[in-house]
Amino acid sequence: MTLHPDRLFPADERTRAIAREIHRNTADLPLVSPHGHVDPRLMSENRPFPDPARLFVVPDHYLTRMLYAQGVRPDELGVPSATGEPSEVDGRAIWRRFAEHYKLFRGTPSKLWLDYTFAEVFGIYKDLGPDTADEFYDHLSARLAEPAFRPRALFDKFNIEVLATTESPVDSLEAHAALEALPGAGGRKWGGPGGKVVTTFRPDNLVEPDWPGWKERVERLGEITGEDTSTFDGFLTALRKRRQDFIAAGATCTDHGNRTAITIDDPAKAAKIFHKALEGKAHFGELWEFPALMLVEFARMSVDDGLVMQLHPGADRNHNKWLYEGWGRDVGGDIPSSNDYTIGLKPLLNAFGNHPRFRIVLYTLDETVFSREIAPLAGGYSAVFAGAPWWFLDSPEGMRRFREAIHETAGFYNTAGFVDDTRAFCSIPARHDLARRIDASYLARLVAEHRMTDAEAAETAIDLAYHLPRKIYGLEQ
Amino acid sequence: MTLHPDRLFPADERTRAIAREIHRNTADLPLVSPHGHVDPRLMSENRPFPDPARLFVVPDHYLTRMLYAQGVRPDELGVPSATGEPSEVDGRAIWRRFAEHYKLFRGTPSKLWLDYTFAEVFGIYKDLGPDTADEFYDHLSARLAEPAFRPRALFDKFNIEVLATTESPVDSLEAHAALEALPGAGGRKWGGPGGKVVTTFRPDNLVEPDWPGWKERVERLGEITGEDTSTFDGFLTALRKRRQDFIAAGATCTDHGNRTAITIDDPAKAAKIFHKALEGKAHFGELWEFPALMLVEFARMSVDDGLVMQLHPGADRNHNKWLYEGWGRDVGGDIPSSNDYTIGLKPLLNAFGNHPRFRIVLYTLDETVFSREIAPLAGGYSAVFAGAPWWFLDSPEGMRRFREAIHETAGFYNTAGFVDDTRAFCSIPARHDLARRIDASYLARLVAEHRMTDAEAAETAIDLAYHLPRKIYGLEQ
Amino acid sequence: MTLHPDRLFPADERTRAIAREIHRNTADLPLVSPHGHVDPRLMSENRPFPDPARLFVVPDHYLTRMLYAQGVRPDELGVPSATGEPSEVDGRAIWRRFAEHYKLFRGTPSKLWLDYTFAEVFGIYKDLGPDTADEFYDHLSARLAEPAFRPRALFDKFNIEVLATTESPVDSLEAHAALEALPGAGGRKWGGPGGKVVTTFRPDNLVEPDWPGWKERVERLGEITGEDTSTFDGFLTALRKRRQDFIAAGATCTDHGNRTAITIDDPAKAAKIFHKALEGKAHFGELWEFPALMLVEFARMSVDDGLVMQLHPGADRNHNKWLYEGWGRDVGGDIPSSNDYTIGLKPLLNAFGNHPRFRIVLYTLDETVFSREIAPLAGGYSAVFAGAPWWFLDSPEGMRRFREAIHETAGFYNTAGFVDDTRAFCSIPARHDLARRIDASYLARLVAEHRMTDAEAAETAIDLAYHLPRKIYGLEQ
After folding, report:
1. CATH number 3.20.20.140 is the correct assignment for the domain at C13-46+151-472
2. Which of residues 355-394 of B touch A (CB under 8 A)?
3. DSSP label of C72
4. Alpha helix (H) ranges present in A25-90?
5. Which residues pair with A185 in a beta bridge?
6. Parallel, antiparallel, or unpaired: how do β-strands B160-164 and B196-198 relate?
7. Distance (Å, rounded) from C-alpha B253 to C-alpha A286?
8. Shortest Cα distance from A410 to chain C (angstroms)?
9. Does the domain formed by B13-48+158-472 have CATH 3.20.20.140?
10. Cβ–Cβ below 8 Å for A107 and B450
11. In CATH terms, are C13-46+151-472 and C48-149 the same topology?
């Protein structure tokens, strides 16, 4: 099995030829990754990756959840227990179990990403399955031991221009500091122009008072910033100062995973709930209102310091109680539900939606809002941009539906460009490859149907893949 | 007019050739029909079908509602009145009226099913219309008088391996008993391996206390099972016993048509409402809660006895009051509305969603939940499977959108396979033919776009058409 | 650049050839425009159009909102201020600004409409852009000064058979009276058969008591009709009389832009709220209920006088507060949100949904209701028809999704046909051209996939483009 050069292009010969032509212009552009969850210590420590199972399977909830869904328990896949129960430690055993179930992923983006990575990054041109599991394991293990497969070497090889990671305000940012101090690698200065790792300010665990450890994190924020975070004013001042630290570590964006897109513009109420929450006296409704109130406070800060907001609501976190209790957060137990943006965002947009220095990128897990709400908002407010199809929709069909639903109302230039949103560093080129091919295919259809010219499509493809994310996420400087 | 051998395949020549190849492997597989509403007495009594109008038009609300929508009254179509008003009795007159309006169905699945049935089952290779109405009526009437067109003969001809019917717990199951006692027909033993009719446990009319006759049915359940159903414990025991009778009559599944997918895990509350309802004292909110509470009780029973649950919420029953008052239930007056699964099913899934012996198949009338809720649930809980696109979505475009929305998150192997869900026995082959062609077309697109290999697609198509429904609905034994 | 004769047809050669054939039959049919917002004084006064910027850019919120979304202020585009602030008055400067940003519209319906209009109406076969802005401006200005480009001449050239405008019950209808009095133009009598401008009864500003000036408009209605509108009975009588005036001015329809599709059948409550509202004492909930109550009253009137109702709920009006406060209503600041029809319309449909003389056309801004609610309602009530995809969905992809979602449940004959819904008179031929090509393309796919015959598709295309809107909007006489 080799990767077909026409993969993901439309079958129709006329359209495929156009797609091929459009894609030729974007295939080799540097990768701009303005939103993701790679651990920055990967880069700063530059240690060899662990074994293939721990690299590819154990941390990737796209993979493990598909196997749970067919009755394979998390401990059989080596997912670390939250309760001290033992878990599989033999990488090869995990890998074999995964390979045995690989057919579950037929035609899914996970398989497309993995097959690309096996072939293009690791040079394996075979089909993974029970019969080839060991061969893959041995081949991958051998490669991972080589210097050329250390994280920073791959970063160079992948032609990444910017990689944004995500940190909490109470994170030390040490990894980013270490990267900053690094001498040039491969002719480039780490943390400087031409290839950099930047942080993103993600305050979720400071604005959800019922998230275990909230009070301690508020105190910790006070220590880090030298502010008195026992008052709401002090808390806001501390957040503002901490944002400056993040900006110094390269941040151009914030990131907000609120449960809903509801916003409330009422600082006095926010202050009142903050103080009640610190005393443990906030009731259920107030706990839900606090993040909605804080979104507007963060918008207010963004107007001042220029950080671009990203909002991706809609996940019912830890829906699978059994998974959560046994194996903790972020292991595949979140489920989307329906969401409103039009009514919820109105207070925030009334305040800042037309402000020339404010920018907010909207993502969704509920694709019904693409045509109904996000496209009209992105095409009607100077501050609003449509974020790439995210989680559960970061797929060929999901990306195609995104373009079809957004483009006719908001055009291409109110969309923010692709984000890979991944923890899986090795999959980054595969994800950008897929996205560029799908955008080329959509543009090719417009050309084939005489709705755009070749020249327009060629330029638009380059803008979508490179210029728009750089511009909208503030990565141009 | 003859059926085109490439019908329903994509127009693009390359993709069509692949679809043809994939479909070749599934075209002649036996029909597995795990969810439907054929009257089992059709088979047990094996009487000739009535005239063409009473066979095809009168009982098919897909057809009659399209004609009401253009102003043809139900009585003009022979639909029996609920109030004693007269209704058209002349089969030929009904048939002519239907033929006159047949153009309303252009391009709809109803027409595709009928045209297939006229041609493949009855050997009529013409277009139905005002000019050919009588010719059709005469031809069909002549065929229906022949022994080869009796129900059991058609069952054999259709190559049906399993046909599941649907009965209430207070149904006598006599027809199933009669089928069980039948000597072999056409070399096969009825009710045995190689071609069987099984029942399905559908308790809706025992869990909606405001459904006329509820109290009497609860009493009747007590009589059938010898339990005291005047207490909630006795009611549950009686249901459990009755499930054993259904299992003895071949049942592998239950079927639940709740208004919503809301579930509540609170047996004490269920008991309290049950007793109030028997006394006629339950208020409106309690009447709505009772089915939600009972869903969890049924799940609890399924964990014990292994019956696979099927849930298909979302219809606002008897929305068309004029139709309901004049002609009763199930004549085309139900309308879907929006539905939530993520929040509603959480109590049930918290309790049993990861239980190795529990299985629930989710259907929907609200296709927005395909990508947003059903795919993530089916791809994240071992107990959950995505049911086939059902009622209003059991169409070429509906099935295509189902695959496009579900597959990339849940894969193919967390979908349960096609169900024909029909009362119209003669349309069963047509419906399976349509579904197999649409699945072949979707898979062919994946192959043409190099997202799957030919071999993967061929195996997947067979799994979708045959192995998955057998396995997931428990029909393998 | 010339318009490609195959524009908007599918790329696949087989399907394209079929689409071309189908479209050949509809390309030259007269334009039936049963729902739009052209100012009737355009026709009655027949003055030359203003400069290109004021004709194409300033009044078209599809265009201005896309430019706001990229930071161009309304005053820079000449949008008249609501507060007395100055606004750009130089048409050429506005036009250049627009041309500079024209790439924002790549592939959007706005660009398709404009390019068609520049080429087919004004004979410019170039691409608009910064370099050609002045050339376009000069060319367009020169044409607009010619008699052949006056409104009535273009009306003839466009081959418009009926153009419906929209007026409030307190509008004088003077323009329609003036048109009625016109002698024949181009061999046709204005306001007579073969080419007419008719009005539509749109009472929104009389049923929203919180719309500024409501009380004065209610009084004005009393003056116009000679009824005492200080009582609810008098108000209803006045509306009924005014509808007769509209019918005399050619109206066959009413038009309702309620916020939601909720209906309440309770005349006594309506009367109570009406009187409280006149005294300024109605509370918030009552202000929301009044339009829902009035919808049922208008349906009651329609049963009597035969006016076809049109309902298009779902816009959150003036969502963009900054735009509204600075530049007023209808400048692009409305945003859709989700909507329910099934539950909301039940009271109205219970009362009149099966009445042989009642007809209601449903539009939506929330496309999720196409398959879930509108198709089942249109395919299940004789009074209900699915309106064309409207605002934000009046695009190639939106129209395709509309057909794909509606057709299999409701067929083609429960859809009401295309409406251009536009204020932009010169874009009318472009919009009909686009719609006819998309319908031809959808039908061509059904033919290519052997789901319809060529003959069926050809007849259906003509029905969709011409016969259905004439019939359903009552324009046949």
Report:
1. yes
2. 356, 368, 371-373, 375-382, 384
3. -
4. 40-45, 52, 61-68
5. A188
6. parallel
7. 44
8. 7
9. yes
10. no
11. no
> Class for domain A48-148, per CATH?
mainly alpha
Cβ-contact B291, B270 below 8 angstroms: no
Chain mean pLDDT for chain C: 95
CATH number of A13-47+149-472: 3.20.20.140
Parallel/antiparallel/unpaired status of strands B31-33 and B335-336: unpaired
Output the pLDDT for position A89. 95
Per residue in A267-303, pLDDT tens? 999 999 999 999 999 999 999 999 999 999 999 999 9
Sorted by where each begins, the domain ranges of chain A are 13-47+149-472, 48-148
Backbone angles phi, psi at A231, to 5 degrees: -115, 155
**Nearest residue of B to residue C461 by CA position?**
B106
Chain B residue with minimal CA distance to A314? B372
pLDDT, tens only, A368-392:
999 999 999 999 999 999 999 999 9
Q: Which CATH class is domain C48-149?
A: mainly alpha
Look up the ipTM and state it. Answer: 0.96
CA B346 to chain CA centroid, nearest Å: 25
Which of B343, B409, B460 has its CB closest to that of A392?
B409
Q: pLDDT per residue over A433-444, tens digit each?
A: 999 999 999 999
Residue from the list B372, B380, B412 with its beta carbon closest to the beta carbon of A106: B412
Which of C92, C166, C103, C174 lies closest to C136 in space, CA to CA? C92
Backbone CA torsion sign across B109, B114, B120, B123? negative
Contact B106 C404 (CB under 8 A): no
Interval A54-99: pLDDT, tens:
999 999 999 999 999 999 999 999 999 999 999 999 999 999 999 9
Query: Is C455 in the B-facing interface, judged by CB distances under 8 Å?
Result: no
Q: What is the DSSP letter of B164?
A: E
Q: Is C316 an interface residue toward A (CB < 8 Å)?
A: yes
For A40-44, the CB contacts below 8 A with 24+ separation are A40/A165, A40/A167, A40/A175, A40/A176, A40/A179, A40/A197, A40/A199, A41/A175, A42/A151, A42/A425, A43/A151, A43/A152, A43/A155, A43/A163, A43/A175, A43/A179, A43/A190, A43/A197, A44/A174, A44/A175, A44/A176, A44/A178, A44/A179, A44/A182
A43 closest CA partner among A162, A133, A140: A162
Topology annotation, domain B49-149 = uronate isomerase, domain 2, chain A (1.10.2020)
The residue type found at B202 is R
Contact B336 C446 (CB under 8 A): no
Which residues on neighbouring strands pair with residue A197, listed in sequence order?
A: A163
How far apart are alpha carbons C462 and B10 in whole angstroms? 25
CA distance A416 to A385: 6
B337 touches chain A (CB under 8 A): no
| Model confidence band, residue C147 (pLDDT cutoffs 50, 70, 90) | very high
Strands B309-311 and B360-362, sheet pairing: parallel
A339: nearest Cα among C56, C342, B373: B373
Strand ranges of the sheet holding C309-311, from the earlier edge strand across to the other edge: C309-311, C360-362, C384-386
User: Cβ contact (<8 Å) for C448 and B11?
Assistant: yes
pLDDT in tens, A147-156: 999 999 999 9
Residue with tokens 């009306």: C155
Q: Tokens 């869904």 label which residue?
A: A69
What are the start-end ranges of the E strands in C333-472? 335-336, 360-362, 384-386
- pLDDT value at residue A186: 46
Whether residue A368 and residue B373 make contact (CB cut-off 8 A), yes or no, is no
DSSP letters, C269-305, are HHHHHHHHHHTT---HHHHHHHHHHHHHHHHHHHHHH
C107, A451: Cβ pair inside 8 Å? Answer: yes
